[in-house]
């Protein structure tokens, strides 16, 4: 009964995710239809348009063909009558992934994450197939196979990530626990996979935050150009609202472009163009208001911005290292190096996938090439994250880390000594306690204690706690790495 309930709830989550995405398109389109066409509106075209845009928002390219009468009325050249629009407004896909991750995590807490993920993905596939079959436009079409496959793939990825994360932390009594047991048997290499995933997630989050901040600063600096392009379109308030909503749907796409610019490779806005910190080379740019944010020129000194992704990697490395120390598992150099390299690889793969979705064609002719190139973006961002993470992960251990580790060893020895004293006599108890403290100090500390030159580094701390046990302390001979 519980498994059936989990399956039904996961399918319901998938239906809600699809309904919210479609409603976000239907609501403004309905308002536009009502205000623009009034009683003579062709309501039969509303659903096909919303469904087509929903498929496009999940990565399906849009093949546009302009009718001959529209070409004559607008004066558009005949060679621009047909083109492909493939730069995706990633807001819809991102919403599906996040909603699926939430659903997958809930199914994992219920103990049936495999069934929940499968049920939600199957429901999304059924909904996507229904939308693809019923929402067909003659002037703008998406490939049928991609329109059916891409929404459930997006849902599957999000649900798997959310479910596996919770199952890894809390256990699932199944395959994730078996994999976890195998990883735990690796000894000092056991924490590496979880640290790689945690560090990559932190690095990606930091990079997205920096990209968003840079985009906000650019909007403040070049807001006048954006307003000028809005005015040049000569649209009324309704048209300006539609354009603004469309640009908001492209906000995650613009974040990918901004991250590629910060990483160094930059992006293109047409064949033969380049926008990067090293320089900007633009031709004729479409009059889309958001493109007013593009810098007109840059200098080689702007390459200093690549320090920001390196800083994001350093932040992730510091967080991972702090977590390892807090968990009492300070790793040797080799596992820490693998963690840094793994963080760079995962970040590079995510960057490559984001670049594939955020690049493509934005119009006919020379506009058939736009967005970041996946390979340069992935290599640059992955390398910068590796560099930043390695700085923090491979640096010598701070004396505070060593002192904390020594304290943990001392406390463990004292706990063992106290356990032994419970079953012994009072005289044997005192002897066992002293032996436990001596054992905790170790042979090297005993030699340092007997060193005749110990007065040069100070007398030992003979302070005692309320139980009469000596407090741990660090000697100058202790290594820092």
Structure summarized in a few sentences:
This protein has helices at residues 2-37, 46-57, 68-74, 90-109, 113-134, 144-170, 175-184, 192-221, 223-233, 237-249, 251-263, 307-326, 333-357, 374-393, 399-422, 426-450, and strands at 62-65, 82-85, 140-141, 268-269, 274-276, 279-281, 370-371. The protein has 481 residues and is mainly α.
Overview of this protein structure:
65% of the residues lie in helices and 4% in strands. The protein is mainly alpha-helical. It has 3 domains: 1-185, no CATH class; 186-221 and 244-284 and 297-395, no CATH class; 400-453 and 460-481, no CATH class. Strand 5 (274-276) and strand 6 (279-281) form a beta hairpin. Helix 1 runs antiparallel to helix 4 and helix 5 packs antiparallel against helix 6. The protein starts with a helix and ends in a 31-residue tail after the last helix. Residues 427-481 have low confidence and may be disordered.
